[in-house]
Amino acid sequence: MARYRFHCTNGLECVFDARGREIRASSRLVERARQVAADVRQALANRTDWSEWQVSVHDLTGRRVLVQPFEPARGRAKVAA
Question: Long-range contact list for 43-51, CB < 8 A, 24+ apart?
């Protein structure tokens, strides 16, 4: 099991995940990123434009492992290089 941090940003504003979350299988990262996006949307419900927002998933070394748009095109996530 590994711990990942799920940060959210639109390029100007950020919601940082200081604690992170333990994820058993890396295949579950997209599911968790989508849940984080839904939680942020709910917490900041006064916003209407989420088109630029994304969840940037990092391991504890700071390496970005996944970028998941809040409203993904065709339901696909981008895997970070």
Answer: 44/15
